[in-house]
Specification:
Length: 74
């Protein structure tokens, strides 16, 4: 998935107030998190050291999709 596709995905959904990426990482401002990560990936995505920014965006997408499917199956 390209960064442009990820950016479009996040622009097209309603975001919750906060999300836990894992037990120790809570995102409390999702729009700011997404914007800063997209900017970083676009500027430095070709550098391996910045791969974690892209990975966190993918992780967030998976979490949001899981939450959405859980809420629609109830």
């Amino acid at each position: 998935m390209t960064i442009e596709e990820l950016e479009a995905y996040f622009e097209g959904i309603d975001l919750p107030e906060s999300v836990y990426l894992n037990e120790a990482t809570k995102i409390i401002d999702l729009p700011k998190f997404i914007k800063s990560h997209v900017i970083t990936v676009k500027a430095h995505g070709h550098i391996r050291a910045y791969q974690s920014f892209y990975d966190r965006l993918l992780q967030l997408k998976e979490i949001l999709e899981t939450q959405h499917s859980d809420s629609t199956s109830n």
